[in-house]
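Aim 2, interim progress: modelling of the flavin-adenine dinucleotide-bound target.
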Amino acid sequence: MENIREIPSHSTRLAQSHFRTLRLPSPFQPRIEALARTEDWYDWAGYKAPNSLWDSELEYFAIRSQAALFDISPMVKYRIEGPDAEACLNRITLRDVAKLKPGRVHYTAWCDDEGHVLDDGTLFRLGEQNFRLCCQERHLPWLLDSACGFDVRIEEETEAIAGLALQGPTSFAVLREAGFAGVEHLKVFDLADFLHQNGTVTICRTGFTGDLGYELFVETKLALSLWDRLWQAGEHRGLRAIGYQALNRARIEAGLIVANADFSTAGHALRADRVRMPDEIGLGFMVDAEKGHFNGRTAIIKARQNKTMHHVLVGLEIEGNIPAEHAIVYHRKKREVGLVSAAIWSPMAKRNIAIAGLSRPFGDTITDDLWVEIYAMRELKYERLMKRAKIVPRPFIKLDRRAANPPADF
Amino acid sequence: MFLGAYGERLAGASVAEQVAWKELRAQLVRYAGILKPMLSRRPPDLGGMSLAETSALGLTALSLKRLGKEDMRDFLRMLLMNVADVLDEQLEDDRLKGLLAFDAVLSSHLGPRSPTSLLGLYYRLTGELAGAPGAQIVPRGGMGQIAAAIASSAAKAGVIMRSNAIVNKIRIENGRATGIVLENAEEIPCGLIVSAIDPSTTFLDLVGPRELDTGFVRKVKNIRNQGNAAKLHLALDRPPEFLGVRAEDHRGRLVIAPSADHVERAFNPAKYGEFSTEPVMEITLPSLSDPSLAPDGACVLSAIIQYAPYRLKQGWDAGKPKFLKIIMDLLERYAPGIGARVRHAELLTPADIEARYRMPGGHWHHGELQADQMLMSRPVSGWSGYDTPVDGLFLCGAGSHPGGGISGAPGLNAARRILAARS
Ligand SMILES: Cc1cc2nc3c(=O)[nH]c(=O)nc-3n(C[C@H](O)[C@H](O)[C@H](O)COP(=O)(O)OP(=O)(O)OC[C@H]3O[C@@H](n4cnc5c(N)ncnc54)[C@H](O)[C@@H]3O)c2cc1C
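Predicted structure of the complex, ligand included:
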């Protein structure tokens, strides 16, 4: 196994060395490797990340009935600081950053000049003039070019900061047991700093599961000790490490989308018709046309006025129990109107659910008589199923414990 | 020596060379004629072209077809060639090639052997005076008279003009330009703003990046606009006498560019941020034709000198006296005794031109006029139609298609565009 490189937290402006190693180890790699029984890895932004660790089905149930630890270190992270940080982020992203108070997090997205979504992500306001932006894709040149005319410093800190998602009904109990006093005060989308050894860990009540959960960010050199602290505290609270497959099920139930899975980002799309405006992937609610200029504003407003948005993203409930992953969606079983981008049989909702991109007016004004065509491989033969699909609101599940205050203890 | 509109006749060369030049000139004028509609009209907007515009482009295609197969092939072959290769193919006389090479690269960061340098010559030939392609004049009373003439006819039309009014800011409200703020903080509300200020200043300083999309700002920041030409003004006791130039020919344009290789060698240092040690130059003595420009018997000399890169490695404070000495030594070789007649000398480097005329980079085209910054890529791709991402703000200066020079073309195009948008 490769060595874990020690990366000084302040010297890494650009994660430039990621190409030197085929798959970079995460700061938590020694702990994760030790738990990896399936040896089922995938590439997450250049990192060696687990798809599953022991049993993706059971890993999923750890999220829903115990607590699950998921390594989010490969997530691309930027630090944006300075007197104009708020103004600069307001110009880059869709939502009004002035409404984001210090100690709060919001989910947002950003677009190119044409109003096509470059990425979505979470914006953490660590202080009045201090932000962290987390996302899937790398954007440093775009962010730096967007900083022109603003008094702001932008640094990539992907390699300097390790991240963990701790999700599930006992997640609060794990943190309390680990000794993070005061964590009970965090409401959904709150964040605060807590002591860890000789440093701090930033804990946010956020997550990608629709469940009670937290995300923790720490300097890489404190990563392993943080893992150990949580692991120990979780011993009697069912804490399990999980891989992406389990998380993916949870996020589909929560109705959350993933860049380059449920939509193509503008930086990746090669074909002119693959790019999407916020309104076309369910992110129209983020667009704050009143807050002043931001990238893509003119294009988005024009497209709204001229009604030139051709797509819409919907939640589907599909009859039966066979997941309709990447199935084609039809109107009246005949006309092709879209594609399912993510689908599972939901153990929580006890429904066969899916996220799909449709071409308007289907999914917009025409919502009845939709069908999906599922090819189920059965002993080297495809069974072709035409199943009725109904548009339903996302999220597919709503868990009271997610937002309960105080969070449940165990 | 060139006579008439851009060398209609050639003197001082062999008979064979005269014939060769006549043929080459005819060919260049023919090809420039094809490009002309493109260079004078609005650049083709491949997306939203009106019928009239499409047919104008169609005309270009048609005139291409009319050329005949051989000629069309040659037109396309030569389009992006370097001027030195074209000249070497067809001419022998180094002096003639030097002159043509100089004209082709005038104002640009190109040497005669740089790809696409032939375009500069086409650009020159698409300009015309009274139907004579490539012809140029100096107006009586100097260039300033043009501005004065424009000012007086505008005043007659009821236009109120304000000079020495420095604009500090263009006000934007909800994506629309609503007014300007002057240096003295005075605000002038505007329904429409048409800016002849270069695109970089207009967008990066006056509008400001905050009101613009990142991709657009990126493009504007990438406009190459570093000038490479210096301007020399000399006030002389008496007219200079250039060796081998007849008295009456001193009224014309005198070019020091002994060969295409010489021009290329002059360019070499510019690539590395140094000025030419053997510069090339174009000299005029305007007071010979227009005595109003100098008191009795005296003479003014005006010269454009290349290459003088804007970003001089040693800095222009240190470099300027050295460069001036090089220029004066060179002039002394061609016009012995000129140095002793100088009463006053002024050398404007691109840095000086930038400061004096508020032209970032000191580039008189407000941005290099090269293939990648022409037509639909001028000033930046997607915005070559004089309109801008800001509603109510238009461009009309040298930074827009077709570029600088005292041609009025970008202004005329912009005015037409604005009027068309209104009706
Ligand atoms: C040394 C030299 C020699 C040249 N020789 C010739 C020649 O012989 N023949 C020829 O045809 N062309 C020549 N040119 C080129 C020609 O002068 C330019 O291309 C032409 O002037 C461009 O016209 P314009 O109106 O677009 O821009 P400019 O002439 O640059 O006009 C822009 C105006 O905007 C003003 N401005 C800028 N910022 C502000 C502000 N913030 N507020 C208010 N005003 C502002 C500037 O002061 C300037 O007056 C020469 C240029 C130079 C530098």
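The radius of gyration of chain B is 22 Å. Residues 15-133 of chain B form one domain.
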